[in-house]
Write a structure and sequence with these properties.
Layout lengths: L7 E2 L1 H8 L3 H9 L6 E2 L5 E4 H16 L4 H11 L15 H13 L3 H8 L3 H10 L5 H10 L4 H4 L17 E2 L7 E5 L8 E7 L14 E8 L2 E5 L3 E5 L4 E5 L4 E5 L5 E8 L4
Helix pairs in contact: 1-3, 3-4, 5-7, 6-7
């Protein structure tokens, strides 16, 4: 006997179950209170857990009179504090949960961190719950804000060292930024971050960032534009390489109409 398929509700159905209007659900989504899934055709669909969350939001709003920021904090307090993913399939959610744990340890509110980083509170709230929806630069800035690195947040140092990594057997960073896939070419605690970047058309860092160390980028296919210090532009194609100090502010974008694949090495592992 096969496993039962999870139930999904359309906007109107979820709104009726929560006792609110469909437009209210869309408003709560923009406020980062709930993030529905999407069907293959792009339509919103709510799980049973989403509907339960909607009912809690409605209760906090009507019975307690809380504003969106207070509702977010109240919902966070209800969620378990365990930040360890229970399975590999849930690993992508770990980055957001780790950042939320770091924020709590620092005694910061969502509004404070969002203001310091320069993102909307709803974006940060959504990311902490789903590990989705922030750009590459914002992810770096959040890690730097808490005195850690993206590599550590992604669990790269927790993996056992492998001296040989066969083609197609790469571990993956959680896909937190749209269009950016990062494959780990060397596991464990190393003096170098060695990655294979696969960038969808138009994927970018969405701004410049910097950190300690030195970097080497080699283009396997496609094209990428690298910008150093805001004025030094490099258009790199297949076979081209670039070496630079990581303390220089660097930004990048896939200018190719297809995927761009890079080898990207950073030492020491400070990203």
């Amino acid at each position: 006997m096969g496993s039962q398929e999870p139930v999904h509700y359309k906007v109107a159905e979820a709104a009726r179950l929560a006792g609110v209007s469909a437009s209210t659900l869309r408003l709560w989504e923009t406020q980062g209170l709930v993030v529905p899934g999407r069907s293959e055709t792009g339509h919103r669909q709510y799980s049973a857990d989403d509907v339960a969350r909607l009912k809690r939001i409605a209760w906090y709003r009507t019975e307690r009179g809380l504003n969106p920021a207070a509702i977010r904090e109240a919902l966070e307090a209800e969620e378990p504090a365990n930040d360890t993913p229970s399975s590999e399939g849930e690993a992508h959610q770990g980055v957001g949960r780790k950042l939320r744990s770091l924020r709590h340890a620092a005694g910061k509110t969502l509004d404070q961190v969002a203001g310091d980083i320069g993102v909307a509170t709803s974006v940060l709230s959504t990311f902490e719950r789903t590990s989705q929806g922030v750009t590459f630069r914002v992810l770096h800035d959040l890690a730097d804000y808490y005195g850690t690195t993206v590599s550590k947040l992604s669990g790269e140092e927790e993996q056992e060292n492998r001296s040989v990594v066969r083609a197609g057997e790469w571990k993956f960073w959680p896909e937190t930024s749209p269009g950016v896939t990062i494959q780990v070419l060397a596991d464990g605690r190393n003096m170098m971050d060695c990655h294979r970047f696969v960038l969808a058309p138009g994927a970018s860092s969405d701004g410049a960032y910097k950190h300690e160390g030195e970097e080497f980028v080699h283009v396997l296919s496609g094209r990428i534009e690298m910008v150093l210090d805001g004025h030094e532009f490099h258009d790199l194609g297949p076979g081209d390489s670039l070496y630079f100090e990581s303390c220089r502010r660097h930004a990048w974008r896939n200018r190719h109409d297809g995927e761009t694949v890079l080898i990207w090495i950073n030492t020491p592992p400070t990203f």
